[in-house]
């Protein structure tokens, strides 16, 4: 072989080898290439891609520059070669970041064999406005002094300005008290909806940042904004209150233009802007919908040259700049579109479109007709027993869209500052014959990346997983709401804490919950109590704290730490966590019993009719519940103190937990392991929160199992007991009973609503009764995710994916199969902070096949159920030859592995 060919082949071989170790999926503060963050020392994360097993990062190097070429002149920080396997949330430690500046960054890594990756592709982050004094724009009120009437029309505001020099870049920073849509030269700015989002406005008001370089031009320009009531001033809360935060809308907009010669200009809201309330949006409210009169459209109102002489000058208003924060959460956006499955007449003659899915968003309407024609769309989740349009469960929410045609050919309309929860749409006044192409369902929710999948051999369970995911979509609309349709749609804390673990399997909720948990702390009462809803819009009519709801202050941040390894979240939330436990401590005192602490009890537990059913109703004593959660939150606070190195607090709360536990046992537990209230939830909480002595756990578990069996394999739990029910069973040797409950098809059960045609999770076990009549219309949502918390058990137990170390740095794969073949296969995946984890199993003809993927830079413990190590083949080889770490634990083979793909096959014992 000629020398140059030999050298060339060596070069190619070396290049291909180097390509097996790659850095990918760079993110900053849980986001990809974020614009407008105000974290001065952002945290950087990356993942590794390797086709070699057992890949572990030994070292890394980060470099950050102000230019994408990473020249010496632009470099602002190099970490140097850092010996560490950490690849998530690494803190930037370079020069102080500056407002509005973009920073590019790359990573390269070395594995434990000293193999070096190439530099990753460049990612970036861009800072927002870091100091209140850097806001040069002024707050303006677009409405007239008298525009404090309920459900008033949206306001329009505009200004023209001139750019005299060639443009290098342009950014706009914008927020509002109310909701806004922003336009530059006639084009909508950004894709975000319902901006600026919902926060505790007095403490935290988000602003958005958009790159508008392509929309601003040299010469004359026009900027315009439409401002509606939104959460700030519209009807909010089921007490039908209005203007909770204020009675006057306001806008703040600041455009930064950087010229090619290095100079810059700022155009901001000030007294030179003009406005009108004579807009086509006659009213727009979250609960009630929108009235839009297309005849009143102001053609060209947001472009240069519009005649605004009849518009009035805006007024300057005084608002602080100190509460402004860069968008910490996930923007609400249009995510997908669906078409009607059927258009029909109900028995009462109502024209109805069935979208086939209980969804959240609105209808895009296409219609042609004469000017003044009024088309009305009404929205509902369900049809009644006779097949008629049903809206009683909406209470006072109208969920009504009224569109008045301008009569200029085909018109297309979507609402602006509202959203609906619905499957069925009643159409009134549509001119001519309506067809599917006239209606398109626009699905909106916070734009969280889907990261998890679950599937098994039972079609009903697969539909249950579908319903869980759609319940999350419909209720994660900037805040985790309880329901998306009636006059409520509030951030109920209890619902959020019971579902947050499941939510983290289905979607990347790190940024979503980071933002919302800051509002939990912001709205926390001065005495440490946590409101029922966050943001707290019920404090005027329903102020208080309830066990299982207020505990969101500890359960959610601790859960998110387990999922994402985000220690900083614990650091930031720690004062709130501690204040809540101290609040309970002050109420319980030396008695260690939190009397009166449970306002809602085990909410919506199954309660059969007294005369129609001989079984007990599952009632759990409220003080029992409160004390159990007091103990659990104290335990979580102790664990958090340990993680954060707060040794004094750790010791203090460890001692307090033991005191509560001793009192709990004395007060509520008999020597036979029977528990006060004798309900399923009572046993579940005691076992889940480790409140029983070891010798009583088997007896208590058996009492729970006996209760379930006495009910012919039915549950009787509510919001607080249900999320833990199957976990307690599987953790204590009764996985089969957990499967009995999961696969139960008759009411009350998870699959009962599925068999009744549900496409989301219901609020009640019997939202629709077996005879197709409805539960209490005053509280009967058909899109309410709390009971969807069973998804957590499906991922963690059925498929067996479990956190071993925070952030999935170490992974546990430990599926628990039903012994009787009720499921023949199950598989799940989750894209963790380190990469995709997959676990799937299939049993056939007495053989089990388990397929597993472990991402690079992690390790895993695999537990293969009902196995004998000597019978197992791994990727076709005898396990003992392929993996020396295998050991037996009763009838389970335990194997320690590194990253890679694994296929295990063996006969079932």
From TrEMBL:
Domain Alpha-L-rhamnosidase concanavalin-like: 345-445
Keyword vocabulary terms for this entry: Hydrolase, Signal
Annotated catalysed reactions: Hydrolysis of terminal non-reducing alpha-L-rhamnose residues in alpha-L-rhamnosides
Ranges where the Bacterial alpha-L-rhamnosidase N-terminal domain occurs: 165-335
Pfam family membership, one: Ig_Rha78A_N
Keyword Disulfide bond carried by entry: no
Domain Alpha-L-rhamnosidase C-terminal: 800-877
Alpha-L-rhamnosidase six-hairpin glycosidase domain location: 451-798
Residues spanning the signal sequence: 1-18
Keyword Hydrolase attached: yes
Entry superkingdom: Bacteria
Record SUPFAM superfamilies: Six-hairpin glycosidases
PANTHER family with a match to the protein in the record: ALPHA-RHAMNOSIDASE (EUROFUNG) (PTHR33307), ALPHA-RHAMNOSIDASE (EUROFUNG)-RELATED (PTHR33307:SF6)
Descriptive protein name: alpha-L-rhamnosidase
């Amino acid at each position: 072989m000629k020398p140059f060919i030999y050298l060339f082949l060596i070069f190619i071989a070396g290049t291909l080898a180097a390509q097996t170790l790659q850095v990918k999926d760079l993110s900053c503060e849980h986001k990809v290439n974020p614009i407008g963050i105000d974290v001065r020392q952002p945290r950087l994360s990356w993942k590794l891609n390797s086709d070699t097993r057992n890949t572990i990062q030994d070292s890394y190097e980060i470099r950050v520059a102000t230019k994408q070429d990473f020249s010496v002149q632009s470099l602002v920080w190099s970490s140097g070669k850092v010996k560490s396997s950490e690849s998530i949330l690494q803190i930037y430690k370079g020069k102080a970041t500056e407002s509005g500046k973009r920073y590019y960054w790359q990573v390269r890594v070395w594995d434990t064999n000293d193999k070096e990756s190439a530099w990753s592709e460049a990612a970036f982050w861009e800072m927002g406005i870091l100091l209140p004094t850097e806001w040069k724009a002024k707050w303006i009120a677009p409405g007239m002094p008298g525009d404090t009437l309920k459900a008033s029309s949206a306001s329009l505001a505009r200004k023209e300005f001139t750019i005299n020099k060639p443009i290098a870049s342009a950014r706009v920073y914008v927020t509002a008290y109310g909701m806004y849509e922003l336009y530059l030269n006639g084009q909508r700015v950004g894709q975000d909806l319902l901006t600026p989002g919902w926060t505790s406005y007095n403490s935290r008001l988000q602003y958005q940042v958009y790159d508008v370089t392509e929309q601003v031009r040299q010469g004359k320009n026009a900027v315009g904004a439409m401002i509606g009531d939104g959460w700030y001033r519209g009807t909010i809360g089921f007490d039908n209150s209005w203007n909770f935060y204020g009675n006057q809308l306001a806008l703040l907009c600041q455009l930064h233009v950087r010229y090619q010669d290095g100079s810059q200009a700022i155009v901001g809201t000030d007294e030179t802007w003009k406005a009108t309330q004579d807009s086509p949006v006659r009213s727009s409210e979250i609960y009630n919908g929108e009235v839009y009169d297309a005849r009143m459209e102001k053609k060209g109102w947001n472009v240069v040259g519009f005649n605004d002489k009849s518009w009035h000058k805006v007024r300057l208003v005084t608002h602080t700049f100190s509460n402004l924060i860069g968008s910490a959460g996930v923007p609400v956006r249009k995510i997908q579109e669906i078409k009607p499955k059927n258009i029909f007449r109900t028995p009462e003659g109502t024209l109805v479109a069935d979208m086939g899915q209980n969804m959240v968003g609105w209808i895009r309407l296409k219609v042609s007709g004469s000017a003044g024609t009024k088309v009305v769309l009404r929205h509902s989740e369900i049809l009644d027993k006779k097949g008629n349009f049903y809206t009683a469960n909406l209470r006072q929410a109208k969920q009504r869209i009224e569109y008045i045609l301008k009569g200029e050919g085909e018109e297309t309309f979507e609402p602006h500052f509202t959203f609906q929860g619905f499957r069925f749409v009643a159409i009134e006044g549509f001119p001519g014959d309506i067809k599917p192409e006239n209606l398109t369902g626009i699905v909106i929710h916070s734009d969280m990346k889907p990261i998890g999948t679950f599937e098994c051999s039972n079609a009903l369970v697969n539909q249950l997983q579908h319903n869980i995911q759609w319940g999350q979509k419909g209720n994660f609309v900037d805040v985790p709401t309880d329901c998306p349709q009636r006059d409520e749609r509030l951030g109920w804390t209890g619902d959020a804490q019971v579902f947050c673990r499941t939510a983290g399997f289905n979607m990347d909720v790190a940024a979503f919950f980071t933002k919302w948990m800051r509002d939990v702390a912001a709205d926390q009462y001065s005495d440490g109590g946590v409101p029922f809803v966050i943001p707290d819009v019920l404090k005027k009519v329903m102020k208080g704290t309830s066990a299982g709801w207020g505990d969101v202050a500890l359960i959610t941040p601790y859960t998110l730490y387990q999922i994402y390894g985000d220690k900083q979240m614990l650091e930031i939330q720690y004062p709130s966590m501690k204040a809540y436990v101290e609040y309970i401590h002050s109420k319980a005192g030396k008695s260690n019993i939190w009397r009166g602490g449970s306002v809602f009890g085990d909410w919506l537990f199954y309660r059969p009719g007294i005369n129609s059913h001989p079984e007990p109703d599952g009632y759990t004593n409220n003080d029992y519940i409160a004390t159990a959660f007091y103990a659990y939150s104290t335990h979580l606070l102790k664990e958090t103190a340990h993680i954060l190195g707060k040794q004094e607090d750790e010791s203090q709360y460890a001692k307090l937990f033991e005191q509560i536990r001793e009192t709990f046992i004395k007060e509520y537990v008999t020597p036979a392991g029977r528990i006060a209230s004798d309900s399923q939830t009572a046993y579940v909480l005691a076992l889940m929160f480790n409140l029983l002595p070891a010798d009583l756990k088997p007896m208590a578990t058996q009492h729970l199992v006996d209760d379930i069996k006495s009910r012919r394999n039915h549950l009787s739990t509510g919001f607080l007991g249900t999320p833990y029910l199957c976990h307690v069973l599987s953790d204590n040797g009764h996985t089969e009973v957990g499967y009995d409950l999961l696969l139960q098809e008759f009411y009350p059960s998870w699959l009962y609503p599925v068999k009744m045609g549900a496409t989301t999770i219901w609020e009640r076990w019997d939202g629709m009764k077996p005879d197709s009549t409805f539960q209490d219309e005053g509280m009967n949502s058909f899109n309410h995710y709390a009971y969807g918390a069973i998804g957590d058990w499906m991922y963690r137990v059925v498929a067996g994916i479990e956190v071993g170390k925070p952030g999935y740095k170490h992974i546990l794969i430990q599926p628990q199969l039903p012994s009787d073949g009720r499921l023949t296969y199950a598989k799940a995946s989750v894209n963790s902070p380190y990469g995709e984890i997959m676990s799937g199993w299939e049993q056939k003809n007495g053989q089990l096949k388990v397929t597993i993927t472990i991402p690079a830079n992690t390790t895993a413990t695999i537990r293969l159920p009902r196995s004998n190590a000597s019978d197992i083949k791994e990727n076709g080889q005898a396990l003992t030859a392929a993996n020396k770490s295998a050991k037996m634990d009763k009838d389970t083979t335990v194997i320690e592995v590194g990253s890679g793909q694994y296929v295990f096959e063996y006969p079932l014992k």
